[in-house]
Design goal:
- By secondary structure, the protein is mostly helical.
- Helix content is 74%, strand content 0%.
- Helix 2 packs antiparallel against helix 3.
- The radius of gyration is 13 Å and the shape is globular.
Length: 81
């Protein structure tokens, strides 16, 4: 996971991307997080940057973001034990 993982911010961005209310800046922030986190490839990130309205990439990252958030919550849950 990224060193400065801000669960609330990533959750907020994921929800905005999912419901179509994310601004271009918010989409960029979300995609950069996924790229820096290693959740998407350089090719996927570059494809997004070249066509920021690419539904194919945005649909894919909706799923990836959910998996990352679930993984983070599980990690935190087991850390407490």
């Amino acid at each position: 996971m990224a060193n400065n993982f801000d669960y609330n911010r990533i959750y907020q961005l994921k929800n905005k991307v999912e419901n179509g209310t994310a601004t271009v800046i918010e989409k960029d922030e979300y995609m950069l997080f996924l790229f820096e986190n290693g959740s998407i490839t350089t090719e996927q990130y570059n494809k997004y940057k070249s066509d920021k309205n690419s539904n194919e990439i945005l649909e894919f990252v909706k799923v990836i973001g959910g998996i990352i958030l679930a993984g983070y919550l599980l990690k935190e849950l087991f850390k407490e034990k």
